[in-house]
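Chain A, query sequence.
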Amino acid sequence: MLGPVILAASRSDKMRRFVSAAPGTKQVVDRFIAGETVDQVVPIVEDAADKGLEVTLDVVGEDITTPAQAEAARDAYLELVERLKDLGLGTRAEMSVKLSMFGQALEGGHELALANVRPVVEAAAAIGTTVTLDAEDHTTLDSMFAIHEELRKDFPETGCVIQSYLFRTEDDARRLAAAGSRVRIVKGAYKEPASVAYQDKAEIDKAYVRITRILMEGEGYPMIGSHDPRLIAIAQELGRQAGRKLDEYEFQMLYGIRSDEHIRLAAEGHRMRVYTAYGTDWYGYFMRRLAEKPANLLFFGRSILTKG
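Chain A, predicted structure.
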């Protein structure tokens, strides 16, 4: 299994330098990363809107080591909100944030992350959109869920992410599937030990289906994060069984992956949101995309062997 090896490499400074210097890296990174600046990502949001798609925007970067860096991450999102406001795109684009970017891993990180993310959530609400808190490795989740609960007191549409490969997630889903909640279900893309997570793909997929059923039968708003045609079809059937209309849940897929499926689902009347990452600190995000799907790794392998 190459996935765990690649996930370990995502934390290696040596591998970061090698991958960044490889001649074909930019070609592959551009497939998954929409750009480095707000100016580069705005046309992508506009194009998605023209195609009947929505987006969630992620300013990539997780290796935060100082409070000043966490504040810079906050300011990057605030800049994004201002651009969306100026262009009238607030209702077409939400934001996804990793609390590690807001200082969660630093001393006093829980309070620091909450203090930094709150102004972003407030600014998003002011232009008619929302923020979703991304799930990271299992050691961060109690803090993430506590911050999510705190933010929802004032901003009830604040979303969160749960991961099907973790044993705890079915219980989390039952707790979160309440009226007004917004919950994205994904498989999970961090290297987790067998003590807390399923290691077998078939078991992860079975858990994904069980959790999707919980969300569909609940009173909240499920967000189905998957590129797997089988899981997408199952989610559609579970939505029908639960009596949900097509606008009472949505699908989410990554920018650069299965773009034709984005259009197909939107044409069928589904809400379809494209997870769109941008920024200069792309390495950790990029490596997890390689780990998720062997085809991505093969594409990258061919590219780094290409000169120029």
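Residues 47 and 53 are 9 Å apart (CA to CA). Strands lie at 54-59, 93-97, 131-133, 159-163, 182-186, 221-225, 250-254, 271-278.
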